[in-house]
């Protein structure tokens, strides 16, 4: 499945199935390699609205691993609360091309349904008021789902559930161009 986006008259396809580690490759529509999108989340500062378990688990979604077993310490988990959120501070404003999230493997896959991905410059209330990049309709156990943010700009990337629920997140990849001049 490819996602097309336009910037400064150039058309590129982000190929969701073409991975090298956690780097996504960017190709021109004619299929010629033109660069890559880097996952900048691991360099960010994570935070969340509450802690169900250890406060150390907040870093699990940006550890670069797609392993997704909460019981093995591979995911972040909030308490059951209104509007739970998990956020990564990218330390500066960036152009976000895509965000991919990984759901929990061993339990409770439906809890993430309805989650919203938000990108912006406000950290107030975890960034839940920032512009929306996408909404999770449904995810399977251990599934990784990618959202095209179409070049949204922001320092903070947040996932939130707009209801009373637990939020479990096992991985978040925030991709921006390795060479922004291509755009």
UniProtKB/TrEMBL annotation:
Example GO biological process: regulation of complement activation, lectin pathway
Coiled coil: none
UniProtKB keywords: Calcium, Disulfide bond, Lectin, Metal-binding
Protein name: Fucolectin tachylectin-4 pentraxin-1 domain-containing protein
Cross-referenced Gene3D superfamilies: Galactose-binding domain-like (2.60.120.260)
General function of this protein: Acts as a defensive agent. Recognizes blood group fucosylated oligosaccharides including A, B, H and Lewis B-type antigens. Does not recognize Lewis A antigen and has low affinity for monovalent haptens.
Family, similarity comment: Belongs to the fucolectin family.
UniProt subunit comment: Homotrimer.
Organism: Leptobrachium leishanense (Leishan spiny toad)
Highest taxon listed in the record's lineage: Eukaryota
Pfam family, one: F5_F8_type_C_2
One GO MF term attached to the UniProt entry: metal ion binding
Residue ranges constituting the Fucolectin tachylectin-4 pentraxin-1 domain according to the UniProt record: 37-179
């Amino acid at each position: 499945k490819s996602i097309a986006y336009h910037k400064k008259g150039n058309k590129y396809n982000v190929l969701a199935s073409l991975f090298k580690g956690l780097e996504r490759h960017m190709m021109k529509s004619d299929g010629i390699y033109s660069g890559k999108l880097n996952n900048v989340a691991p360099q960010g500062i994570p935070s969340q609205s509450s802690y169900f378990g250890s406060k150390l688990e907040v870093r699990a979604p940006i550890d670069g691993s797609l392993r997704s077993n909460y019981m093995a310490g591979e995911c972040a988990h909030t308490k059951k609360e209104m509007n739970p959120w998990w956020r990564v501070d990218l330390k500066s404003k960036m152009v976000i091309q895509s965000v991919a999230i990984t759901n929990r493997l061993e339990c409770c896959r439906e809890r993430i349904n309805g989650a919203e991905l938000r990108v912006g410059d406000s950290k107030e209330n975890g960034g839940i008021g920032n512009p929306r990049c996408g909404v999770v309709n449904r995810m399977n156990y251990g599934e990784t789902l990618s959202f095209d943010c179409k070049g949204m700009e922001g320092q903070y990337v947040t996932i939130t559930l707009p209801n009373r629920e637990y939020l479990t997140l096992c991985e978040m990849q925030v991709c921006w161009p390795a060479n922004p001049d291509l755009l």
